[in-house]
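Researcher: Predict the fold of palmitoyl-protein hydrolase.
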Amino acid sequence: MAAARRLQLCAVAPTAKHSASVLFLHGSGDTGQGLRAWVRDVMTPDLAFPHIRVLYPTAPERPYTPMRGALSNVWFDRLKISQDCPEHLDSIDSMAQSLGSIIQDEVDAGVPKHRIVIGGFSMGGAMALHLACRFHPDIAGVFALSSFLNKDSVAFQAVEERQRSCLPVPDLLQCHGSSDELVLFQWGEETSALLQNAGMRSTFQCFPGLHHQICGPEMELVRGWILSRLPPSGS
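Model: Structure tokens for palmitoyl-protein hydrolase follow.
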């Protein structure tokens, strides 16, 4: 297998001893810096913690089929933004390797896998679900904002296989705006239901009137959920 590509990364450092980490993945066409700035715009203070490092990687540019092959910062390719098309597993799995290198760096820095949360917005949430369900099911949890998985996603199969083997899977928090015009609310709901049917503990939160965006109350919910999975050491 080819070596994992090193990704550009910005981070919010903890203010005290680093004992946990969050990996937060941007949506298609954005960057890690862009997502971090967006988070800071909608919540005060920033998504920052005394003991948690928050990492915002940037997806590399690649030809993106929904944009007629134009280059874009995307985690993977797909035929179209739809529940009904097959997943582009080559690009998903290749990116999982690159993101796995970031996770391994945190482990090498002394953070155990069960003290790591992975999440994302839109396409970043779908990528986070693949990472959590298929590649790193021993993390503390996964969150997906305004996101969906294809109806026949291999992520569902991976959760089912772990359940049959009595192996744990991480808890999921999903948030979705009822007025999302790009990733339909129904797609998010159906993704949550399919993951629950496969055996994943999933909380789905609707934000009435929210479009394809994040908002302050949503990010405050995410902050509290992260702290419930990654409390300060010794708590």
